[in-house]
Amino acid sequence: MRNTKWLSKSEIKEMLDYTLSDEEIDEAKTHLLTPVFERVFADSVGTGTPYFKVRGDERNIMDCTSQAWVLALGHGAIDPIYAAFYQAEKFSHHQYGFLDETRAKLASKIASIAPGKLLGGKVAFNNMGGSATNEAAIRLAYVSQKRNQKQQIVVFSRAYHGSSLAMTGATQYIRIATRYRSFGLDRWERAFFPYCYRCPWNYNNGLGGKKDKKCKLECLNLFQNYVEETSNQEVAAVLLEPMQGAGGQIPAPVEWLQGLKEICSKNKIQIIFDEFQTGFGRTGHMFATDYYNDIGKSDVAPDMMTLAKAAGGGLPLGILLASPDYKQFSEAEEHSTFSSTPVPMAACLVVLEIMEKHKIPENARKMGNLITKRVLELKETYPVIGDVRGPGLFIGVELIKDPKTREPYTELAEAMKKDCWNHGIYFQGMMPIIKPSGEMVRNVIKIKPPLIINEEEADIICERFEATLKSCLNDLNKN
Ligand SMILES: Cc1ncc(COP(=O)(O)O)c(C=O)c1O
Q: pLDDT tens across 144-177, in order?
């Protein structure tokens, strides 16, 4: 590496390596406008592992969150960071209007791996992550209409699309979480998202996100009626996660996506898939769209797809991918000061190379199958395990009080999120759903570790999951 100019390398390292006292940490907390967890993140373990450390704890904690589902290649994954470092040493910033070779390489790479009708498509990058990318997709949906006449965007129940002022309106509103309402609320319309395990029409089976044998896709009819009869005929686009993450790890049945595509194309409605969580290998395929195309044997690819999370190997990158027939934005419609930095794009190129060369999606599929099978076996011993949904390492375990009533067991999920630390594992749950009565439903525990885990680590996840479940159940049964 080149020599530094104003400060020596050891001065810089000293600044970054100096350890704060507990008092200094507490003092710093008083200056933060955003709440933080009780534990302080201390370190990643190794060079691409599912483990991390928190301050004051020597143990390696097994991470079932990949830190907001970002670290697909694991903690400390050094290759993308090396690429970023190498790129940054050459140059790290220029104006958005300049193309550089790293952005050029990445644009062509993404276009070449895009699923179905998106293959060979067009891309826009930003370094602001998910909300900004979804907003870019909505802007593209608007400007691509002939007379820009339709303004409404259909989103779905339990959706999560970000927390910017516009995207708060697309996300299912959570009264206890935000104390303000989004801008542009009049633009969003909310439709019903299929939820097979709690299907209002066929409340019988639906296990693993599969539809019931008696299913006649009533939820699709509902959508069709909504679009064709109830909505105000102003729908420009639908925005959806084909597999909902925050809403409870709920995959849409493939037939519903196929039907949605038919209805939308008949009514000239653009489809945007938000694949922030499912993109880049998590479902056992590069994209959830690939998974659906594979199992459904027909192309459900949307008109646009938005990607972020795992893309930059831990560095911030948002990608809007549109089908080849879209025209470009104007300069004013899509740009930002810092989004041209090639640093996360260099990291993304390396992430993609590793995913392909080392078959990371396939590994996610295998490890996901192992964990899902083991957790399903646990159902015999623990009837509080209601539904176990995948695919791949996009796993949600829905906890219930009684297999007959399927009453959500929120208390158990909340207890597990606290107690998991005692067992050396870190879980997170779904976003809260607040009923009109004020009751909170939050009964899904997610198992979404880095995609590089091996069999031994998959076993450790299952063992620690069971240990956490068992000790929480014992405690709850005592009270
Ligand atoms: C499906 C989905 N969409 C959008 C977002 C928003 O992304 P960001 O927090 O980067 O704005 C998230 C973040 O968790 C997400 O999971």
A: 998 778 999 999 999 999 999 999 999 998 877 8
Q: Residues 178, 260: one domain?
A: yes
- Please count the other Cβ atoms lying within 10 Å of the Cβ belonging to residue 441: 16
DSSP letter string, 4-43: PSSS-HHHHHHHHHPPPPHHHHHHHHTT-SS---SSPEEE
Domain CATH for 229: 3.40.640.10
Distance 129 CA to ligand 1 centre (A): 7
345 backbone dihedrals φ, ψ, rounded to 5°? -70, -35
Between the CA of 222 and the centroid of ligand 1 the distance, in Å, is: 27
Kindly report the protein residue whose alpha carbon is nearest to atom 2 of ligand 1: 161
Name the residue range of residue 154's domain.
Answer: 82-357
- Per-residue confidence band for 214, with pLDDT thresholds at 50, 70 and 90: confident
Asked if residue 253 and residue 371 are part of one domain, the reply reads no
- CA 352–ligand 1 middle distance (angstroms): 20
- Asked whether the beta carbons of 318 and 304 are under 8 A apart, the reply is no
Q: Is residue 383 part of a domain?
A: yes
Task: Please indicate, yes or no, whether residues 376 and 316 belong to a single structural domain of this protein.
Answer: no
Nearest CA to ligand 1 atom 7: 130
Contact predicate 342/87, CB 8 Å: yes
Q: Which residues contact 72 (CB under 8 A, 6 or more apart)?
A: 66, 280, 281, 282, 309, 310, 313, 351, 355, 360, 450, 451, 452
Tell me, yes or no, whether 297 and 262 share the same domain.
Answer: yes
Question: What is the rounded CA–CA span in Å between residue 246 and residue 64?
Answer: 14
**Residue 4 maps to a domain:** no
Task: Give the mutation target among 34, 277, 319, 336 for probing the ligand 1 site: most ligand atoms within 8 A of CB.
Answer: 277
